[in-house]
Amino acid sequence: MAILAQVLDSPYFIQGVVVALLAVLVTSFWDDLSDEIPYRRVPLVGKNWWSDLTNKKAKARFSQSARALIAEGFSRNFFEDRIAGFEAFHQKNTSKLVTDLVRIKLTQALGSLTIPLSKETAATVHDTFPPSDEWKPYNFAYHVPYMVARISSLVFLGQKICRDKEWINVSVNYTIDAFTAARELRMWPSVLRPLVHWFLPSAQKLRQHLRVARSIVNQEVEHRAMIQDGRLPPDDPPRVHTDALDWMRELSQEYDTPIEVGRTQVGLSLAAIHTTSNLLTNIMYDLAAYPQYIQPLRDEICAVAAEDGEFKKTSLLKLKLMDSVMKESQRVNPVGMILLNRLATADIPLSDGTVIPKGATVAVSTHVMGEESIYPQASTYDGYRFYHKRQEPGNEHRFQLVTTTRDHFAFGHGVHACPGRFFAANESKILLIHLLLKFDWKFKEDRGRPKNFEIGTESITDPTVELLFRSRTPEIDLKCLGGA
Ligand code: HEM
Q1: Rounded Cα–Cα distance for residues 422 and 270 (Å)
Q2: Disulfide engineering: 102 pairs with which of 62, 96, 272, 419, CB 3.0-4.6 Å?
């Protein structure tokens, strides 16, 4: 008590309290403030330094009008590993392994995957669109991720798990819940996030998804190990192709890097499902809005089937109009208004004297893909745009969906360009073949091409739009697609 009385009487007491409070204040907001140190010489818009020290107003403004505020930068940092639940965003020391898995193993396997992918596509299309002579509504944007998750999971985890409803739920909804949780968390000062996330329902859902994923994937790993050791008989029917779970084991040994398979599988879904679904939804909205492309696309599929018989990887390459339609959809509606997100690992002087400082995150605006000087009548959807380019001598192999250039970088560009684009292209073409041959399509309410929404820097297809489908008789024998 005597000591307490002495402290309270001390002339330094008030100063001490003030200094302590200041220290708490500065450390509390240090993450928010220090975030901007690398950019101190870069002009900013959308933020007033002194009236918005914690960035609260800048964040709200960015959410509402990111296009106008792109120069203000953005954060793709999903809280590193400080917040439980976001682990699938951080592949840490296994990121090279994952990229090589997709770039090398998956791409090399594509030759043997056309028919297995087509069969799984036929099965999911059959389950999703019951045959109907009447027009029936289908909310494409909402439901297509479930089809894409099933087809992709065939290649990520095999036949059994790709039909497991719990896995498909994780594969589709981890990403949605993660983006919701990230948006909600960013509204809190960073010092409070490690506490707040334990109570946020969206963050709780994330952790639950990871628990389910780990349990399903680890069980499968154990199951395969038991078959290999002879403790269990082989699967019936036996597995007919290798998948990403096999490749993870192989690469983990080859690179001498332990890998957490559950988290990595969720990471694959994160990269693959909504990106591919977004592309497919955009294509179907474009085809419903500009139906003049549908019959020529069917004719092209039939011509390739007549030439090749059973579809192969090379048959998909022959679908040049389809490739062009897909690339044009991607040009007009890329996944985001900025891509090519990079971290400057050294100071980078630009020709006008601006220096991108070491440690800064930079990105490139996708508005280039709408530039009139590069794409005449850029705002018009022209499904033949890239098809015609490829007819010019010397261009046969250029302007493909999977080709990345500085004028079309919807899959990124350079060393880090999307390694999954070859798979995404094949998988999407196979699904489109089934959808176009088996059904007619139109909008329930035809109000022209539905506009995409912009949330932050993301471009989202209108989830309220309903398409109508009606069964039709395919003009070719579907044996060429594996049967159904
Ligand atoms: C239409 C579908 C897809 C789109 C539009 C897309 C788009 C992108 C983009 C824009 C990037 C960043 C590239 C850069 O910054 O240069 C990227 C990276 C990546 N994508 Fe995709 N992606 C798609 C499908 C897939 C699929 C199916 C997979 C896996 C099977 C995948 C795996 C990856 C991986 C691992 C990276 C990181 C590459 C690295 O950092 O080096 N993507 N993707």
Answers
A1: 17
A2: 419
Name the token pair of 458.
Answer: 């993301």
**What secondary structure does DSSP assign to 245-266, as a single string?**
HHHHHHHHHHTT----HHHHHH
Q: Judge if the beta carbon of residue 279 lies within 6 A of ligand 1.
A: yes
Going along 60-161, which residue ranges are E strands? 136-138
For 164-220, give the DSSP string: -HHHHHHHHHHHHHHHHHHHHHHTS-TTTHHHHTTT-HHHHHHHHHHHHHHHHHHHH
More confident residue, 70 or 156: 156
> Closest by alpha carbon to 327, among 369, 373, 274?
369
Q: Tell me, yes or no, whether 450 lies in a domain.
A: yes
CATH number, domain containing residue 147: 1.10.630.10
Residues 12 and 109 placed together within one structural domain of the fold: no
Tell me the pairing of strands 467-471 and 439-443. antiparallel
Taking CA atoms, 166 is separated from 171, 233, 274, 334, 405, in Å, by 9, 25, 17, 30, 39
Q: How far apart are CA 117 and CA 481, in angstroms?
A: 9
* Structural domain includes residue 202: yes
Q: What is the per-residue pLDDT for 14? A: 75
Sequence-distant (6+) residues with CB within 8 A of 135 are 442, 468, 469, 470
Do 187 and 256 fall into the same domain? yes
Residue nearest to atom 1 of ligand 1 (CA): 276
Report pLDDT digits (tens) over 385-416.
999 999 999 999 999 999 999 999 999 999 99
Domain around 13: 1-34
Q: Is the CB of 100 under 6 A from ligand 1?
A: no
Please indicate whether residue 98, judged by its CB atom, sits closer than 6 Å to ligand 1. Answer: yes
Does the residue 449 lie in any domain? yes
Name the domain count of the chain: 2
In angstroms, the Cα distances linking 300 to 116, 296, 297, 433, 470 are 22, 6, 5, 10, 21
User: In whole angstroms, what is the distance from residue 98 CA to residue 100 CA?
Assistant: 5
Same domain, 118 and 197: yes
Pocket test for ligand 1, best of 105, 411, 416, 461 (most atoms within 8 A of CB): 411
Residue 40 domain flag = no
Per-residue tokens: 188: 């809190």
**Same domain for 285 and 377?**
yes
